[in-house]
Amino acid sequence: MSTWLDRRVEIITADITTLAVDVIVNAANPSLLGGGGVDGAIHRAAGPELLEECRTLGGARPGEVKMTRGYRLPAKAVAHAVGPIWRGGDHGEAETLASCYRRALELTEAHGYRTIAFPSISTGAYGYPIQQAARIAQQTVRDYLESSRAPLHVIFCCFSPGDTRVYEEVARELLQPRT
Ligand code: ADP
Question: For the Macro domain, which residue ranges apply (predicted)?
Answer without folding.
Answer: 1-175
